[in-house]
Predict the 3D structure of the following.
Amino acid sequence: MIIKKTDLPQVANSIMNALHEDEVEIINELYSACEEGNKERIDQLMELLVYDIEDHFSTEEELMREGDFFAYPMHKAEHDSMRQEVKALMESWKRNKKPEEISQFIKERLVPWLMLHIARWDSTTAMHLGD
């Protein structure tokens, strides 16, 4: 386990909190599969992560548009940047099949990014949107 649900900053919107918790489950499963070198499981979980990130970000973006969130362009830009990074990781995985590349990305980039993103962008967004 690379991150506990209890480590996640909680925001003032239950939908956003649920999205974050779901993503943490996938991240942890993927990290474990990488540590075990289970390439078949990594294939499945990478597909799931890509899908989940898109669902997570699209849901938040829809909430921001509906709530007329003033910083929507900046928040979405953060999402778009991570979308590109995860897409590049997926392409690299398909070519190279290196579990250590994924586990390193999770540990050094994805988890720190998620924690900072929630604390900085999602908490502000959630306060604007409410529950």
The chain has a mean pLDDT of 97. Residues 12-129 form a domain with the Four Helix Bundle (Hemerythrin (Met), subunit A) fold (CATH 1.20.120.50). The CA atoms of residues 93 and 106 lie 13 Å apart.
